Amino acid sequence: MITSEEIKNRLWDGANELRGSMDASRYKDYMLGLMFYKFLSDKTLATFKGMYTKDEISESDLITAFEDAMRSNGDLLEASFQKLLGYYVLPQYLYQKWIKDINNGDFEVQKVIDSLNYFERSISASPDADDFKNLFSGSTLDLTDTALGSNLNERSKNIKALILLFADLDMIALQKGDVLGDAYEYLIGQFAMESGKKAGEFYTPRQVSEIMAQIAAKTSNIRSIYDPTVGSGSLLLTVKKHLTREIQEALTYYGQEKNTATYNLARMNLLLHEVKPNKMTIKNGDTLSHDWPEDPSRPNEGVLFDAVVMNPPYSAKNWNRAGLKVSDPRFVVAGVLPPDSKGDFAFLLHGLFHLGQTGTMTIVLPHGVLFRGAAEGEIRKRLLEKNYIDTVIGLPSNLFTNTGIPVVILVLKKNRQLGEPILIIDASNQFIKVGKQNVLQEKDIAKIVDTYVNRSEEKGYSHLADRQEIIENEYNLNIPRYIETIDNEIAHDVDGHLLGGIPQHNINNLTVIQSITPDLLQAALQPLRPNYVKLNCEIAELSDKILNDPRLVNLSAKLAQQAQAYINKYWPQIITINDQDKIHDLMEAMLAEIKTLLTNFNHIDIYDGYQIIAEIWQNALLHDSEIIALSDFYTAGRSRVPNMITKGTGDKKREVQDGFIGSIVPNELIATELYAEELAKIEHNKNQIQMLEGELSELIEASKEEDSAEYEALYESLKKNDDDEPLDAFDNKKLKEELKNTPKDSEQYKLLKKADKLISEKASLSKKVKAVELALKDEIQERIINLTDQEIDSLMYKKWFANTTTLLSELIEKPIKAELKILQMLNERYQDTLTSIDDEIKQLEDELQAMMQELVVTE
User: Fold this and answer.
1) What's the sign of the alpha-carbon dihedral 13, 14, 18, 23?
2) Which Gene3D superfamilies does UniProt cross-reference here (predicted)?
3) For the domain bounded by 1-200, which CATH number is listed?
4) Distance between CA atoms of 859 and 855, rounded to whole angstroms?
5) From the DSSP assignment, how many helices (H) and strands (E) are in the chain?
6) Tens-place pLDDT, residues 722-750
7) Residue 803: is its pLDDT beyond 70?
């Protein structure tokens, strides 16, 4: 029982260990290629087993039966494979044969090369041959490349290690619930981060893919999808994830990719995500140089798709090497060719040409497409006049690994109502920093998509720009022209600084406090003069009154009650989930409902609540529900797995088992909830050890001070460095000798005895703590498999939802606390008037003058 998270970590750790100094963008081709061949081999064997027997059979016996069947009835068997799969791997070329050769010491790299080459020859007659053609070509998987090792022995060693990385993975079992596909996508993403600038060739960051895909998936009656710069296929697959199972099964996928290795990656990725060969058409070619796909019967009309998604190379230079003219059907709508120095609009126009009349297109481009002039300005004007641009979404800078520039998602449609405004969203400030990258949180993605769906306006965030507004801006779509960034800085008031007092208009802007507890605020203010007030109590006192006011407390309690009912509704659905395919649907239902629940409460940010639930899923539920679906809740709760840790470094680095950990119930949680008394005793003893260490440290420091009693008694017992300088520890052997040779009735003996006793007590207590901790660790590992149903309920509820109701109910207080902080700032700002400051200065000057007069000069 292995989860997608465990597979991801294991494979990525293996990749880092095995690739050495090889460039990540190159190594990915080897790793992902061999991983895919393992899938093809497992799929072939599983299909043969289904045809051969329903009984349990060992893998070696199954391969023997496969070999016998191919010898006796090969043609019929091959036809069956072609019908069921569209491909097959011959018995002698199975991945399992490589593993057997490795174990027997008979491995040769040439056998791997022969296997990959024969696979492509074996499917050449298949109607799905294009999906596999050159999939393992030498240009993609060159196993003679010296980057894999400077000589044959080194290459053989490294290739064997990579083959063994996937040896025990059952790719068919892992394909269920998209575990295998998710792991493949994860590896692509990790390689992208390692590859830096090269990543843009094959990967779109997940958060950008999510926005584009969720918008594209809103298209009704979606039957086909096209990505003209398909990369690894992640955009197509992200759209797939947001469609119902019924639509997924009928959907056809089209894509084109210029880079051959990336084109191969895309085909593997789609097949691993259970996209059937007859439902995918991926082409290796230059999207712009020659239009594709084409319909020979309609040479001037593009093949149309319900959804078009794309993340093209940004501002591609010299894109028009084919010498295309404006008469190319793709560019006729623009009336002018995009500049050869920047291919952004060339890609956009290509995608638009293939967009169906009722379809949706999403494309991510650099911000410059919104405002650049010349030919690009003319194209933008034409698109706006044709009413094709539906939505503009400004994103933060530094989202991509290959560029730090800010990007924009454009949504285009051909069936927009005449006069329908363009939705402009400025999400450029909605991100968190993760390492060097800016990252959109789940709540940021949800807010963008919801704003798109609802066509809603929010000051400083979104705006519906009508035709007249766009004309007045000369067809320039630069976001700051339409959305003014909200300046949260409160302007200074000159009269307030001169005469004191908080301006009344600043008090009026405390809308949440004014709405919930206006009387408390009013009672805390004292008129100073017209339009100015001052606080007549401490801000801490007012905060305490407001936050403990029954109106606010009742509101928080109401939200907590509804949050508890929400959890109670989904708890039984989570613990009884038995289908991995339903996990995503359950997560989406919970996320949608929390937004609905929170809209019943004024002033709170529903997306903060959304993030709370999203993080529960990310941090625990996705992993745990997967394990539950593979067995059942209580079986999973009583399951444990080896706790593998890494020991050693370099050549001595190795994985060793350090006991067991719960599959879903954390050992630490069992300890805190079921062994609290034992932990308290351990903590008490650790505190005692710290006290003893403190006393020892004091004694050591005193021993270093000359002329002290401690120096006389203990200095010789201190450890010394090579320069005979005292260290911060006693030499126990010397201490014992000094104690033995010192008169018992002397002061020195008492100090030596004190040091010896402290050391002895510390050692004894440390040994005791270590033994108790080890025993408790063993007991907890045994307790896992003996947990009662009630204990599992309690522990898992604590793990998933321990503080959820509290976190959600605190959303009520959040805007109140923000306004109280503003009030405190205003009070401090206007507390000292110019007059009071002048008076203070004069007082200080008078005091200084008086002090100077008291000074007496002496010779």
Assistant:
1) negative
2) 1.20.1260.30, Vaccinia Virus protein VP39
3) 1.20.1260.30
4) 13
5) 35, 18
6) 999 999 999 999 999 999 999 988 999 99
7) yes
**To the nearest whole percent, how much of the chain has pLDDT over 70?**
91
* For the chain, domain boundaries: 1-200, 494-543+814-835, 552-636+794-811, 676-784
Q: How many CB atoms lie under 10 A from the CB of residue 123?
A: 25
Nearest residue to 670 (alpha-carbon basis) of 771, 577, 772, 786: 786
pLDDT tens per residue across span 748-780: 999 999 999 999 999 999 999 999 999 999 999
DSSP string of 81-93, one letter each residue: HHHHTS----GGG
* Run of H or E including 432: strand 432-434
Nearest in space to 258 (alpha carbons), one of 286, 288, 224, 223: 286
The model's pLDDT over 568-625, given as tens digits with 9 standing for 90+, comes to 999 999 999 998 889 999 999 999 999 999 999 999 999 999 999 999 999 999 999 9
Which amino acid, one-letter code, is at 460? G
Residue 350 class from Cβ within 10 Å (0-12 exposed, 13-18 middle, 19+ buried)? Answer: buried
Q: Are 266 and 233 in contact, with CB atoms under 8 Å apart?
A: yes
Phi/psi of residue 366, nearest 5 degrees: -70, 155
Q: Which pair of structure tokens corresponds to residue 520? A: 């408390």
Residue 5's pLDDT is what?
A: 72
DSSP label at residue 302: B
Q: Give DSSP secondary structure letters for 216-249.
A: HTTSTT--EEEETT-TTSHHHHHHHHTS-HHHHH
Residue for token pair 């998710």: 182
d(CA 253, CA 257) in angstroms, rounded, equals 13
Q: Residue 660: what are its φ and ψ, rounded to 5°?
A: -130, 155
Phi, psi torsion values for 358, nearest 5 degrees = -110, 15
How far is residue 610's CA from residue 602's CA, in Å, rounded to a whole number? Answer: 16
